[in-house]
Amino acid sequence: MLELIICSLLTILPDYLYRRFAQGKRFGKEITLFSVWYELRWGITGCLMLTVALITSVFFFHPATSNAALLFRTVPILPEGSGRVAEVNVGYSQAVKKGDVLFRLDNSKQTAALETARRKVAEIDASMASARADVAKAEAQIQEARASYQQAKDELEVKTELQRRNPGIVPQRDIEKLQVVVEQRQAGIDAAAAVKESAALQVSTLLPAQKASAEASLAEAQVDLDKTFVRAGVDGRVEQFLVRTGDVVNQLMRPAGILIPEGSGRKGLQAGFGQIEAGVMKEGMVAEATCASRPWAIIPLVVTAVQDYIAAGQFRTGEQLIEAQNLAKPGTILVFLEPLYKGGLDGVTAGSTCIVNAYTSNHDEIVDPKTSTGRRIALHAIDAIGFVHALLLRIQALLLPFKTLIFSGGH
User: Fold this and answer.
1) How many other C-beta atoms are found inside a 10 Å radius of the C-beta of residue 345?
2) Alpha carbons 289 and 356: distance in angstroms, whole number
3) Which residues, 6 or more positions from 278, have their beta carbon under 8 angstroms from its beta carbon?
4) Using CA atoms in the order 136, 138, 139, 141, what is the torsion angle rounded to 10 degrees?
5) Which residues contact 308 (CB under 8 A, 6 or more apart)?
6) Do residues 357 and 62 make contact, with C-beta atoms less than 8 angstroms apart?
C-alpha cells in the first residue's frame, strides 16, 4: 500500500490535478467513475507498473524475512554409562555452574573396584619393600660366602706350600678335599650373587612395572567411579530435569533433562532469506530487526556470515536414487547477524522470532571515480528506496503488539 501511494504521487495525482484545476472539470459532472478511468488510464497503468517495479526493487535489493530467530544450543543431560539414580542434587529448573554434580548413579560396584585397585597398589608397595630386604639379605650372604671362600682358600694355600717344602708332610687327600671346599665356596658366592641380581631386578624393573599397571588400573577405576557423578559441563541453567532417585537411566533413553549454556542465544540472530536473494546477501550488510519479545524496538544488526549452501538440498546415502520432484519446499539462505552495538540484543528472549530487513549499500561504488553518471544515479535510487523498507519495518514494529494480542487472538 505504501509503495502504491508513493507511485500514485508521481502518476495519478499530477494527472488528476491537471484535469481538476487546469481543465476545470468537476466531480459528479465531467469527472465520473468512468471518466476517471478513461482519462487517468495512463496514470493508473503507469502507477501500477511503477508500483510493481518499486516493490520488486525494494524486496530484491533490500531483502526482508520473518523467518528469523535467536537460535540457542541445548546440551542433553545423559550419563556415560547406565545405572540406577542414587542421588539428585538439582530441581526441575535451576542455575548451575560448571562441574556441579546434577545427579549420582549407584556406584557400589565402582567403589569396590577402586578399593581393590588401591589394595593392589599397596600389595606391590609391600612386595617392593620385601624385595629391597631380599637385596640386603643377598648382599650379606655374598659377604658370608666370600669370607668362607677366603678362609678355605688360605688353608689350601698353606697346606699346598707345606707340601711343596716338605713332600709327604701333608696327605694328598687333605689337599684335594680343600680344593673341593674352595670350589664349593666359590659356587656359594656365585649363587648369592645370582640371588642378589634377581632381587635387584625385581626392585628396579619387575615391581615398578607391576606398580605402574596397578596404578593405571586404579586410575581406570577412579574414572569409572567419576562417571557415576553426572556433572554440568558448562555454566548455564538446567530445565525439564525430571529424574528422581530410583530411576534407571542410560544413553538409549531420553535425556534426564537439558542444560542451556549461559549466554546461549544472546550473541547473534539467524535468519532465512529467499534463494533469489543469494546474490544480494553479503557479509557486512547493515540490517534491522524487530522481535516479538521486545516490541516497539528496532535493533541495528550487521551480517557476519552467509551460509554458502541450502539445507533443503542435503541428502543421505541410501538404496534409492534422489528424485528431484520429491524434494521439500525450497530452502532458504541462512544468514548470521550480530548486533551493531554492544548490548543490542539485551531484553530479547532467546528463541524469540523476529522480522529482519537487510539493506544493500552501494556507497563504495558510487564514490568510485570509474563509475559512470548513469550508474551512480541508479545506485543512488537503489539505496534510497531502502527508506521504504525501513519505514515498513517500523510500521510492522508499531502494529506487532496489536496484531498479536488483538487481531490474531494471541492473548
Assistant:
1) 25
2) 4
3) 333
4) 130
5) none
6) yes
How far, rounded to the nearest angstrom, does the alpha carbon of residue 326 sit from its chain's CA centroid? 33
Indicate if the pLDDT at residue 124 is higher than 90. Answer: no
Q: What gap in Å lies between CA 309 and CA 71, rounded to an integer?
A: 19
Written as nine digits, the cell of 124 is 606391590
Grid coordinates belonging to 20: 481538476
Query: Can you give the pTM of this predicted structure?
Result: 0.67
Residue type, 118: R
Q: What pLDDT digit, counting tens, does each position of 172-197 carry?
A: 776 677 777 777 777 877 887 887 78
Contact (CB, 8 A) for 88 and 229: no
What are the helix (H) ranges across 231-341?
Answer: none
**pLDDT tens digits, one per residue of 16-28:** 776 677 767 776 6
Cβ neighbours for 313, distance < 8 A, ≥ 6 positions apart: 327, 331
Phi and psi at residue 350, to the nearest 5°:
-60, 135
* Assigned C-alpha cell, 293: 519479545
- How does DSSP assign 147-161, residue by residue? HHHHHHHHHHHHHHH
Which SS3 state, helix, strand or coil, does residue 389 take? helix
| pLDDT for the residue numbered 385 | 83
Contact at 8 Å (CB) between 78 and 243? no
Provide the pLDDT for residue 92.
85
Choose among 287, 305, 269, 273: nearest CA to 66: 273
How many residues does the structure list for the chain? 411
Gap between the Cα atoms of 192 and 194, Å rounded: 5
Cα distances from 338 to residues 91, 99, 223, in angstroms, run: 34, 30, 41
Give the three-class secondary structure for 287. strand
